[in-house]
């Protein structure tokens, strides 16, 4: 039985675009350390073929 397995996801600040890795499941998404009270949002995993 697997237990304590966590999934890493990238979160991004919608204001300054700072990214950070968090591990799911997480109760609360972290606040941006730069913006203070801005909650970071989960960013979709980047695809290699994504055009920029
Ligand atoms: Zn920020």
Cα-to-Cα separation, first versus last residue: 41 Å
Principal-axes geometry comes out as: flat
What ligands are attached or bound here? zinc ion
Mean pLDDT: 84
Number of helices: 0
Q: What's the story with the biggest beta sheet? A: 3 strands, antiparallel
Strand order of the largest sheet: 2-1-3
Uncertain runs are: none
Structural category is mainly beta
Topology as a string of helices (H) and strands (E): EEE
Q: Could you tell me the number of beta strands?
A: 3
% residues in beta strands: 25-35%
Radius of gyration: 13 Å
Helix content: under 10%
Describe this structure in words.
- It contains no helices and 3 strands.
- With about 50 residues, the chain is mostly beta strands.
- The chain has a 3-stranded antiparallel β-sheet, with no helix packed on it.
- A hairpin with a 6-residue loop joins β1 (about 5-10) and β2 (about 20-25).
- The mean pLDDT is about 85.
- The structure holds zinc ion.
Topology:
Blueprint: E1 7-12, E2 19-24, E3 41-43
Antiparallel strand pairs: 1-2, 1-3
The site of zinc ion (ZN) has 8 residues, from loops.
